Amino acid sequence: MSLSFMIFLYVFLIATALVISAINDILSAVITLSVFGILLATAFAILQAPDVALTQAVINSGIVTALFLVAFSQTEKPECYSEEEEE
Amino acid sequence: MSIKPYIFRIASLILCVSLGLMLFRGIAALPVTEKVTGPASHYLARTAGETGARNVVGAILFDYRAFDTLGESTVIFTAVCGIAMLFSRRKFHRSSRGLSFIAKRGIGIMVPFLLMYASVIILFGHLSPGGGFQGGTIFATVTVLLCVVFGSSFESQYFPPRTKDILESGGALLFSGIGLIGLAAGTGFLSNIAAGFPAGIFGSFLSAGSVPILNVAVGMKVGAGLSTIFYSMIKMLDAGHDHREGGGIE
Amino acid sequence: MILLSYATAVIIFCIGLYTIMIRRNLFKTVLGLALMESAVLLIIVSSGYIPGGVPPIAPFSGPAVNPLPHAFTLTAIVIGASDIALALAFIVKLHRHYRTVDLDRIRGLRG
What we know:
The complex is a heterotrimer.
Chain A: H1 3-22, H2 26-46, H3 50-73
Helix pairs in contact in A: 1-2, 2-3
Chain B: H1 4-28, H2 39-50, H3 56-64, H4 66-86, H5 101-123, H6 132-150, H7 152-158, H8 161-184, H9 211-234, H10 243-246
Chain C: H1 2-22, H2 26-47, H3 68-98, H4 103-110
């Protein structure tokens, strides 16, 4: 693979990481994490590591994203937020 | 009052940048080799002869360093136990409805092909890139898909949690059993060709001794474990908005 | 090319560390952890790269890349997914107890 393609891929990877860090909406950050995982799998494939690329693609975009979305859906803000201490 | 967060942010930024510079100087000082040396050259040269497997990474994970793979399976098992223990006391109050009719019919046609794809990746792990971990994760993803599209009661009816427990423990027992066969043959725990497993013809499906069996065991364990994690976290989906029973200390 | 991969991985590691230190939302902490783990995986895999190499599947059609980093990267990916799952389970339990995922508020409520 040519060097310019690698540079483009890595710049895209760093830009995605900056988006994950800076954005305030959690849902958008989780979807961007999924994109980051696929780009990293592409980088692994170009570095001649097919096993690692397959594992990274499946685990990051399959299981980790699903678990993030389940955890996010369970932590919605309740309608009636009470101020009392809980013991 | 309003300047303290900014000082903290700037200090963190300076810390991260300097840490990055030092890390890069240290990592870039690693020697760049034109030739593979050390144990890796031994593995590359001798794998086809000593194990009969074509996939060198799979042979390393399931023959030369199979004990480390047993330790990693234990890590997954511990994580599954921890999560299942955290969410242990709840059951379904009502199940989710699933998606529309078109989605159900479409996914219903696709699911057998997904299961076949996962099985191929597990079973041909010694011939091409793949293996137990990748295939097991795809099995877990199929159960997640069924849960989303058809509703969680459908999924718990066809893959009950009891079955997943038996699959996960069965995978661990199979792995340890293969190791004990090697011990009983007198050659050492988790030994492959030396313990009498047939090496077979190089490049065919039935080759590489115990590597396919270990792939199946790890695939069962990882698939059932990840599916149990998802199911433990989702089974409170409709029971969690009830503040009376959700607020106490467990 | 290997130096380029090292530089990218170190930058992503620092971005992840900055996210963990600055952000108050607990989900952002776990996202920063995922970024840091991915950066370390990139360092490991690119340390075994031979320029002009082929994947380590026998029979080789050229010089094969180092297969040992691939083996422990596989282990590291799966263990990373397990600990992200456990961290998310803790966040759900914390939310059930404190009704917020804001770290400053949780610390304020305790002390």
